[in-house]
Amino acid sequence: MKTFSKNISKEISLLLMLFLLGWHSVVFAQQKVEEDEATKAEREKYEDLDYKKFFPLFKPTFDSRINDYTLQDLKKVITYQPLELNPVFQVSDYYFQRINDFDVLREYQAIHSTCDSALRYIELFEARLDEKEVKKKGKRYYMEFLKFPANDSLPDEKVNMNHIHNELKRRKEVLAEQKVEVDSIYLNFKASINEYLIANEIFRDVCGTYPTIKELYIMAEYDSLFEKMAPMKTHYKKSLFYFELYKKALEVHPMEGYTTTYSVLPIEDYRIHGLTRTSFLTDDIRLWDYSKWYDEVLQFYKDEIISMRSMVTSYDEKLEALVLQKQNTATPSEERFYLDLYTVGKIKKYDPNAYPVNIYEYKEQKINLLNQIAYSKVINSGLKGDLKYIRSQADVWTESEKAKDRINSIPTDKESVGYKKHAKYFESKYNDNLPLYISNEKRFIDEQQQNAEKLLKEIIVNYFSSTLADSADFVTYEKDSISLEPIHESNEFLVRRINTLHVRPSKDDHKLLIGTIKDEKSLEVFVADLDSANEITWVTRYPYKKGEYQGLPTIDIPYINIKGGSLHLMVTVQGVKVGENQLTLNNKVLILEQRSGKLLREMSLFSNKYPRVFQYMQEQKSYLVAYKGRSKNNINTYDTLNIQNIKVDGEVLWNTNLMMQGMVNEIIALPNEYLVVANINKLSNLDGSRVLTGTQSNFGSFNTGILKLDYYGTPINGTVLSSSESYQTIFALTDYDNTLNLIGVKGDYRNYQDYSKSEIMLITLKINNLKVVEKNIQ
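RESULT FIELD:
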């Protein structure tokens, strides 16, 4: 009756479709019914298949090889009889049986795919396997596990879970080992070929550029040819190295049909030998010896061509030309300038302590100083608190310090042996009066350093002083307005609903206004994007549930990070929640798209203390956060400083607790460690066994402490940059040669500070040993 009803229903559906859509739709419906019928037939076939009868047909013995047709049947059984678990293992066995069926060099991907398939089905089987399955069906399906290698030495006659897990573990180990061995063969073989082809291509390019060996030698200095050819030797050596690894891999995983030997041919006739390529798949692998050829021509070049004294003069002229170029251009280079080590090496081969090299090193540093000055001018956006500009000015100061060190290292004693070795050079280039040259250069360095200190002082005053502007321009928003910078309200009875807390430069000459919206009805964070004409392009608002609090809670945005096209906001809300009688402090990170303001993610931070440092590390995709005190102004006491490294998904990678009286300034992430920079009276571990102490104990009379943490946040060592006069670091930065720069002001810390009358503080130290290089404090 059910079948009859279904058929009647189908006929009625067809008549309705005929009436509404016409005969064309009827034909389409008939085709669909036929397709459904085919699917139905397949389903009924495999739903009705008796697996316990099917199993002994394709697996009469434990080592029976499962064929391709059976594999398809097993996958259908898995689909239509999902409660039947054994087919999952049999599919894994099908792939496991075939992991040695492929040619490693020609079917590398197929081996990996087969191993991955075997592992995937093993894991699917293992995930669903339980005692019930083994007890119920062990005798029927799983007795073969007693004969597999993991268990064949055991006397057991009844299979259990341990037997199955033993074999599955063995198979996973075999699969992993198979992939490692296959990788070792294929990747080393491929690397050997690639490295040789690169060496061959470099040689062919040289032959195509220089038609004769004589022309090669003549043009070598002008074209820096040997620097360009050096990788050829390296790649050739790497090719042989990887071929040896390939041979060793074949000893572990033998494979027939491929040779493991090669012959090396000398390059005796330029542009005749060395041009042809070779096939690594033939029985006769013949390699041109590019390493020996490179060594021979280089030695001839050294012995017969180079004139050291002309090189000394010509290279100095080249550096001087670069200095002039930097002085006359407003466009900085993207990369740092370095001396040509090959040229310096050639000079030092004959004179290891060559005095001209000291001048080269100073001019190298002068080029970088001029480049940094140009760079700082280019990125000066004119916006107050541009962090890139702050860093650029600190780098000008740093480069000036380095230039001062280099100029002081130039020897000037005419009677010394080193000076006499290059007397004609000093006479022709410096009129035999190095002291005059050095004196002029020192005046230049001092001028640049003083300018940098002046600009840094202005930046500190404008950006880090606690005083706010008394007035500002506004931009209209809805029925209210937003100030274009943080302001101080002159009327204490007038509290603005929309309060700008931060201004940051953005892309395409835009800027971001970041602040809060707070009134009796609203408690929100806002971000507004303004174009170059100060027109609002978008506003993003993030509301909090004000009704959860008694009265009006405080809301703050202590820190902002803009990296990788995203805006990361640290938001702190403090108040008394409904039904409670104590203040609670909630921290949350909001991540917005910088261009559009779209909210990408939000993350609650489970700490009831106020954040003092918030830094997003783009490469690690995690945050460095330091907490101290129950509120923003709770900073005076000697209590816990909590530092965490938190992934963007909320996972805490490490958590470190210290004790501190003072204020943490910054946490700098280095490749394998972290630097905690803090203005302190005292900093220690929790039990007080390791202590860093400033020269004074009164809060606010600080010295700067530097504490190193290892990769996991564990304190390693530290130092206090002691001074009899109190000072505070405001900004800390690193460059690329193991240097840490601290910028701040001299004098005691105050809650509301005006740095306009403070003297600037500058310290340079080495990161590896925390030793001070330069400082302007006593």
